[in-house]
Structure formats: C-alpha cells, structure tokens
Amino acid sequence: YLLPLVEVVGGERTAAEAVRAAMRVYESLGMRPLHVRKEVPGFIADRLLEALWREALHLVNDGVATTGEIDDAIRFGAGLRWSFMGTFLTYTLAGGNAGMRHFMAQFGPALQLPWTYLPAPELTEALIDRVVEGTAEQQGARSIAELERYRDDCLLAVLGAIRETKARHGFAFAE
C-alpha cells in the first residue's frame, strides 16, 4: 500500500511499551506511525477526511460546486500544501512572521461565522496556546522565510511530479 500512515492506539489496559514496540515495528517497515493518545471513533486521519467529506457534500447539495470542482479545489489548492506541510504549518505561514498566534488572532474569530456546516470549538486561551505550542514545535528553529522557501520548493516538485506522471499515463495536467 502506498500510504505510509498507520495509527496506533492502545486500549485502557495496553502497556505503554506495547504501543512503543508497535510504533518501532511500523517505523522499521518504512511506515509513518502516529500515536493516537486515546480511543476515538475513526482515529485521526479518517475523522479529518470525514469532516471535509461532510462539507463537500453540503457544497454539492447546495449547488455551490460540482464534485469535480471540489476535487480540483483540493488537488490544486490545499491538498498540495497538505502533502508536505499539513494544516497547522500551512496556517502558521498564513500568520506571516508573527506565525500561528497572529493567524489565530486574525482569522480565529471567523470560525464562529455561519459559513460552514461544521460547528467550531470555542477558541479559549488554552486551545490557542496548545495550537501555538504545537505549531512552534513543528516549526522548530526554522524561520517563516525558510518554511516559505521549503513550501514553494515542495509545491514545484509535487506539481512537476504530477505533470510528468499524468503525461506518462496520457492525462492532461488539469484532469
């Protein structure tokens, strides 16, 4: 299977060492294990996909876009960045040199606007701090400018790979 993600979750009586051992096994196989810290329906990746799927169905149902247009919005927009940066680092860059805290202050209140069907959590200081700390850890010592260069280089590489692969298989780039 081509997707390297595997989500590892232990039950209430699972020893921490058993989870770590499973993570090591998956890593040794070239997989990217994620430790799911508590049992939830759908784990992490599927929950995120389901939220996007639900919103996409609303957009189709309301006549806002076709399924192809929605797929193109992902394939030629956010999906490219997500493939190498994920959601939080993408939005960290959207905050400019001030990073995630600025992004949350500027755009966070819009989560309460009724333009989506998905209810948003209350943006408490604790939540904002967790998000800011998490993205700061992801960012490490890299500056926003360094991450922007990385993002741009990855976008060009991904787009080039898509273009070449589609051409080899007889597809036009926009298909």
The biggest beta sheet is recorded as:
2 strands, parallel
Overall shape: globular
Strand order of the largest sheet: 1-2
Q: Percent of residues in helical segments? A: 55-70%
Backbone structural class: mainly alpha
User: Topology as H/E string?
Assistant: EHEHHHHHH
Q: In angstroms, what is the radius of gyration?
A: 19 Å
Instruction: List the total number of helices.
Output: 7
> What's the structural domain tally?
2
- Average pLDDT confidence is 91
CATH third-level topology of the largest domain: N-(1-d-carboxylethyl)-l-norvaline Dehydrogenase, domain 2
**CATH architectural category of the largest domain:** Orthogonal Bundle
Give the strand content.
under 5%
- CATH domain class of the largest domain: Mainly Alpha
Number of strands: 2
Q: Which ranges are low-confidence, i.e. pLDDT below 50, for 5 or more consecutive residues?
A: none
Taking the alpha carbons of the first and last residues, their distance comes to 24 Å
Domain 3-hydroxyacyl-CoA dehydrogenase C-terminal: 42-110
Subcellular location: Cytoplasm
GO molecular function, one term: carnitine 3-dehydrogenase activity
Subunit structure: Homodimer.
